[in-house]
User: What shape does this take?
Amino acid sequence: MPAPLFQPRKHPALFALLHRILDRVRADIPGAIGLTITVHGVRYGTGPVVVAAWGGGSDIVSAELSGFGGPLPDALRHEVPVLSLDLWTDERWPELTLESMAARNPQDREAWEQVRGAVSVPGLWQDDGNIVISCLLDQPATATTVATLINYERLVNAAFVTTAAEDAAGIEDMLTVLQSRGAIEQSKGAIMGCLGCDAEQAWSVLRRASQDFNVKVRALAVALLEHISGAPAEQPAFGTPIIPDQETRHAAEMMWAALRSPPRRSHASTRR
Assistant: This one.
């Protein structure tokens, strides 16, 4: 089932702004032949919504989300940018091939034959969803492609903050989400340092802890930083400060204690 399209009549200013952003992305990324901005989360319903697209991007996004796999589902799952040098031959997604896309949209086979690289960059939208920018290229994707999309993901988030909310409460809520990003990144860094893991694993640990303790990710991140430092976490100058409650502070304390505890040795390993 294809991802539903955004309805510009409900948010004309946001729709126009997102397409202006895509125009700038096209100018800044040589070889770009398809761009898509999708929203994943309860604010726009139960599934993903394509809010802006150019080129053939939305068709491949729909295929990825319908079970073919690809950079976008992996970026959502792991909360990190995902890059492919050659999308149709990438062993990570054996179902996503030129032939499978041609079978799905035979009239567009010539366009699919132009595709080489692909990148998807996620950005925090709310605790249970994301905004993702995806790019198709007629050449291999590079680290520069990823860095460019990361910068534009921030601009897309700003566009939602300034135009997507229909009332003051909605704007305040999105500002709170945006200001939590720094705390989340810092808490991921603390987990990486403690466990010696990468950013993807650190994010997985943080998300799993939030689910196990039934607390919000952003509040847990702030509580963790305050527990580690013994001082209030730095708060941005805008939006509502994130103040963890006692339950969240207790969760952060237990989480950090578990992370710092040495792994238990099995009985078998202690036998001589």
Observations:
- Confidence is low (pLDDT under 50) at residues 42-46, 167-171, 266-272.
- The beta strands are 32-40, 49-55, 82-84, 118-126, 129-137.
